[in-house]
Design brief:
The chain is of the alpha/beta class and about 325 residues long. It is built from 17 helices and 7 strands.
């Protein structure tokens, strides 16, 4: 189950004896774990009912003893293994056996980055538990979910076209989007409605223009200008993850339009289907500079930068973004 579906109405999902929460979206992982905790403990004292282990140091016997021990002051216990990838790798066979017959005394949650659905442990878990995928959803699904979450979390009406514009401006990083909605809810106050005009007015129009200027510079070969503009954004307090999210939203559309043009669609038709409503001449210039090979590689380059920002690389976040910009600015080789 995707975290978006789980969080939309968790009351429809009964409590399971074991969960796997996986994926690289930190907000969705955090919200999913918090929701499971609320369902399991149901108001009981967390100090008495919740135990957390660090996956790289956790002992299998300690974890299983804890989850199997009958609770005394709470109805049910909950045990979370954070960063459980090395824990699962080291104790896969034992966990496969446990998942086949999980304890009724407590709930075990494995919080991992990677969860392969074709493994025995994953298949066993699906029979008795629940795996929750925490990765960024498709834009269409995300827009509808934001409308729903604005109503539930902030008690405001978010117009659908406002949600679409918000994604266009901020990117698809779920945590950043929710944060923006919370700020907008405070701004509209008792009016309790976030319209497209409100989003256009309040959600960093100048910032987004600066991000677009960075992209225009780097995707037309002007690396020095792109790095100078990036420096201004970072100096103004912009977070690299937020900047990459905004850049990714635009570059994915450049990639989509490029794929469509390779299938012999005209520039206008390709841009229309890719959701590019303005600056189509700039898209032509970007495609010309990048070349077909790099246009095809855009999703891979963006994914690698995203992973690097979230811990896959030891490089400072600023350097990760600079590396991406320099790669996009270099002359084409095809």
């Amino acid at each position: 189950m995707h975290a978006i579906d789980f969080l939309k109405d968790p009351s429809k999902v009964p409590v399971k004896p074991v969960y796997a929460v996986f994926g690289d979206d930190l907000f969705l992982r955090r919200e999913s774990l918090a929701t499971i905790r609320h369902q399991v403990l149901q108001g009981d004292d967390e100090e008495m009912g919740l135990t957390r282990f660090a996956g790289e140091h956790a002992s299998l016997s300690d974890v299983l003893d804890e989850v199997r021990t009958l609770p005394i002051f709470v109805k049910r216990k909950m045990v979370i293994v954070d960063g459980a990838d090395p824990f699962v790798t080291a104790h896969r066979k034992e966990l496969e056996a446990y998942v086949e017959r999980p304890s009724t005394a407590g709930v075990l949650v494995l919080a991992v980055k990677v969860w392969a659905s074709n493994t025995k442990i994953a298949k066993n878990l699906e029979k008795v538990g629940l795996s929750i995928e925490c990765k960024g959803p498709a834009e269409r699904v995300l827009s509808a979910w934001l409308v729903h979450m604005a109503k539930i979390r902030s008690e405001v009406r978010l117009d659908s076209d406002a949600a679409s514009l918000l994604i266009e401006l901020v990117g698809t990083e779920v945590g950043l989007l929710v944060s923006e909605i919370e700020k907008l809810a405070v701004f509209v106050g008792t009016k309790a409605r976030i319209s497209r005009d409100v989003v256009a007015k309040m959600v960093g129009a100048g910032r987004i223009e600066d991000v677009w200027n960075v992209l225009n510079a780097t995707t037309t070969g002007r690396s020095a200008l792109a790095l100078e503009l990036l420096d201004r954004l970072l100096g103004a307090g912009e977070h690299p993850i937020g900047l990459l999210a905004a850049m990714s939203a635009s570059l994915r559309k450049v990639h989509h339009a490029g794929q469509l043009r390779r299938n012999r669609l005209s520039l206008d038709n390709a841009c229309e289907q890719a959701g590019i409503k303005f600056a189509r001449d700039k898209v032509r210039m970007q495609h010309t500079h990048l070349g077909p090979r790099r246009v095809d590689q855009l999703p891979r380059l963006l994914l690698q930068a995203d992973l690097d920002l979230k811990g896959a690389s030891n490089l400072p976040p600023r350097v990760v973004i600079e590396k991406l910009l320099v790669e996009l600015a270099r002359p084409r080789q095809d």
